[in-house]
């Protein structure tokens, strides 16, 4: 099973989301999205972050900067991941057509539900268990976008989940998310840099990534021990196309376990290459076996995977 297939398998509605499925309609009306019935109550007050969820809440001044970078438009619908107390949620709601907010913390989800704007829907549950299906209608939004302050401990799985959903037919135009700076560095890394690795290759195969803003620890409450960064991923069909996505992903993961070895030696960590003999695969892909895996471009990894595909089945 490939990494993205594994996350795709988790996309069926989870227990907490199933409980709210009847309340949420992904039918696009002429002016707004149908939302769950609004509950009356007080807004979200100060609270302690829960360490098990990796929560660091964005301060209002920085939320304004993030919104300017996102630049929401009135005809856009946002899927927000990890709204927390709603610092971004309310700012998005003021500018966008609708917001669907996924919150795993039941206390935060309940508090946000009580005070949410009318064009905001709150789903209590793990976004990694989310299932989003959109019906093609004349009144569908012109753009479906993603925003979020991602928990550091599950940021990479969420990114792969978004890629999997995009290739599964949920065509997000982009995702603007806050990440630990080191993760952002890997997302935008180029071949030959120390940050370049599995995450760089697999995400860049499906998205163009741009760093937008660097956020200091003081931008969050409580402040994390690291700096953060806001990045934008613009999704696209895999480029270049690959014959077998499973072979491509397995190959990339295998050779980066030996990133300092020559490519000929690193391929010994990938069983299909051992059966075919690395020299044969490298010749078919027109690659020099003396190069290191960290020097290969995404396109070169695709060529090598294609050279190995027939023998790996």
Could you characterize what this model shows?
The chain has 313 residues and is of the alpha/beta class. It folds into two domains: 3-235, Rossmann fold (3-Layer(aba) Sandwich), CATH 3.40.50.150; 245-312, rRNA adenine dimethylase, C-terminal domain (Helicase, Ruva Protein, domain 3, Orthogonal Bundle). 36% of the residues lie in helices and 17% in strands. The chain contains 13 helices and nine strands. It has helices at 3-9, 15-18, 60-70, 87-95, 106-115, 155-167, 181-188, 198-204, 245-255, 263-266, 271-276, 278-285, 298-312, and strands at 57-58, 76-81, 98-103, 120-124, 143-149, 174-180, 207-215, 220-221, 228-235. It has a seven-stranded mixed sheet, with helices on both faces. Strand 2, helix 4 and strand 3 (98-103) form a beta-alpha-beta unit. Helix 1 (3-9) packs across helix 6, helix 9 packs across helix 13 and helix 12 packs across helix 13. 41% of the residues are buried. The model is unreliable at 1-54 and 135-139 (pLDDT under 50).
